[in-house]
């Protein structure tokens, strides 16, 4: 079965006709950009090739094979949200992951971190459809990757921020035990210090 629908023309695609592709036909060594909007998503293999579909219309085993390949890079926006959505499909992300939103937060913590803002700041346009979103992820990836390195933040991204996503997800799913009595005592202590 075919993966995706023809995508609207976009200036990013330089008027190339959208491509149909069988998901199974993508080489397993393909680096991909992946972005969800509700039940629709776009998977792009470059700034010129983007494929959209509804989750229910996709061969999930083929998608799982792509996403779980440890030898490829996955470019996403909001890795935590992406992981939650894929978890519902029994899919994990393996291999190198570049989260555009997380990288932008590290590079410019005071700015807004929406995809539209990031694309406007780095590319001069806001993606208007799924095709443009897939292309934009590929285009902003090398720019933010270089900005991370130039700012000396690559190690923080790789060793702290990215691994922290799984910790936060576990905490959100399992909850956190709180010592209520210790919290009350600390609140009283702060009140005494404040009232002084």
What does this structure look like?
The protein is of the alpha/beta class and 196 residues long. The protein contains 7 helices and 5 strands, in the order βββαβαβααααα. Helices cover 47% and strands 12% of the residues. It has a 5-stranded mixed beta sheet. α3 crosses α5 (130-150) and α4 (115-123) packs across α5. The chain starts with 31 loop residues before the first strand and ends with a helix. The relative contact order is 0.14. The model is unreliable at 1-22 (pLDDT under 50).
Keywords:
five-stranded mixed beta sheet, disordered N terminus, 12% strand, 7 helices, single chain, alpha/beta, 196 residues
Structural class of the helices, strands and pairings?
Answer: alpha/beta
Unreliable spans: 1-22
Number of strands: 5
Mean pLDDT: 82
Strand order within the widest beta sheet:
3-2-1-4-5
Which percent range describes the beta-strand content? Answer: 5-15%
Helix content: 40-55%
Radius of gyration: 20 Å
Distance between the termini: 72 Å
**Overall form:** globular
Oligomer: single chain
Count of discrete alpha- or pi-helical segments spanning 4 or more residues: 7
Biggest pleated-sheet summary: 5 strands, mixed
N-to-C order of helices and strands: EEEHEHEHHHHH
Layout of strands and helices, then pairs:
Layout: E1 32-37, E2 40-44, E3 50-54, H1 60-67, E4 73-76, H2 79-88, E5 96-99, H3 100-107, H4 115-123, H5 130-150, H6 154-174, H7 180-195
Parallel strand pairs: 1-4, 4-5
Antiparallel strand pairs: 1-2, 2-3
Helix pairs in contact: 3-5, 4-5
């Amino acid at each position: 079965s075919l993966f995706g629908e023809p995508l609207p023309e976009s200036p990013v695609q330089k008027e190339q006709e959208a491509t149909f592709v069988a998901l199974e036909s993508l080489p397993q060594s393909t680096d991909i950009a992946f972005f969800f909007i509700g039940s629709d998503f776009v998977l792009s293999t470059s700034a010129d090739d983007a494929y959209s579909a509804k989750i229910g219309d996709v061969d999930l085993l083929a998608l799982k094979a792509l996403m779980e390949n440890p030898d490829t890079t996955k470019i996403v926006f909001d890795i935590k949200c992406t992981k939650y959505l894929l978890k519902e499909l029994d899919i994990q992300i393996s291999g190198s992951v570049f989260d555009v939103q997380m990288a932008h937060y590290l590079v410019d913590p005071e700015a807004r971190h929406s995809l539209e803002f990031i694309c406007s700041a780095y590319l001069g346009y806001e993606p208007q459809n799924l095709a443009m979103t897939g292309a934009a992820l590929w285009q902003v990836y090398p720019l933010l990757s270089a900005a991370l390195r130039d700012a000396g933040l690559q190690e923080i991204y790789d060793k702290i921020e990215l691994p922290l996503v799984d910790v936060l997800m576990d905490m959100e799913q399992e909850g956190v035990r709180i010592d209520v009595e210790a919290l009350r005592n600390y609140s009283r202590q702060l009140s005494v210090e404040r009232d002084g």
